[in-house]
Amino acid sequence: MDAAPSKAEPSKAEPSKADLRAAALAARDALGDKKREAAATKVAKRGLPIDIPAGTVVSGYSPIRNEIDPAPLMIKLAGLGAQLALPVINARGKSLIFRAWQPADRLVLGSLGIPEPSPAAAELIPTIMLVPLAAFDRTGHRIGYGAGHYDHTFAHLRKTHHVTGVGLAFAIQEAPAIPALSHDVALDFVLTEKDVFDFRSK
Q1: Rounded distance, CA 28 to CA 150, Å?
Q2: What is the domain extent for residue 90?
């Protein structure tokens, strides 16, 4: 008599992007202000892992939702001769545009309530983009907030320009693996207060 077939073990589903995002944001939100400030200072002190010729356009971002603050790093890069810019958000599914910014400039609230440069500021095309994120893994994939602004922007700009993507994050935002779709754009680097991850050869 044949033995009864054994029941297959149920496979454990991989965490979704939403699950990974929620876990990383909860860990980030749990950090205190002093740890956030110390992390931003450490990232700035280390600087970028690539050369920045004078005049290089580096775009940053206005931190929201307890994101690591790029301002200390941006100020350091400006001292090395970089030209700074901040993103301006267009409609969902559209590329960001970037306008010139200096630390003393007054910002205005954009359509999503995020501080942006004045519409009168010159539009620039960044060579290096400092990118916020909710989570990242060790292949350079990131999770944002779901609108796809940076994926669309990289795809648009890289049609005609070389753009280096540098994610900024706290170490606790690292995820084991992020499910990536064909339109998801991997970063070239991620900088945390503890490590520099270089994904260019992966």
Answers
A1: 20
A2: 17-198
Residue 2 placed within a domain: no
Q: Are 58 and 128 in contact (CB under 8 A)?
A: yes
Sign of the alpha-carbon dihedral angle for 161, 81, 90, 183: positive
How far, in Å, are 3, 119, 126, 166 from residue 139 at the CA level? Answer: 45, 36, 23, 13
Query: What is the predicted pLDDT for the residue at 73?
Result: 98
Supply angle C-alpha 58, 59, 60, rounded to 5. Answer: 120
What pLDDT was estimated at residue 180?
84
**CATH number for the domain harbouring residue 145:** 3.40.50.10420
SS3 156: helix
> What is the number of structural domains in the chain?
1
Q: Model confidence over 122-178: pLDDT tens digits?
A: 999 999 999 999 999 999 999 998 778 899 999 999 999 999 999 999 999 999 999
User: From CA 59, how far away is CA 100, in angstroms rounded?
Assistant: 9
**Is the pTM above the cut of 0.85?**
yes
Check if the beta carbon of residue 202 is closer than 8 Å to that of residue 140: yes
3-state secondary structure at position 59: strand
DSSP state of 141: -
According to the model, what pLDDT value does residue 62 have?
Answer: 96
**What are the tokens at 178?**
């992020």
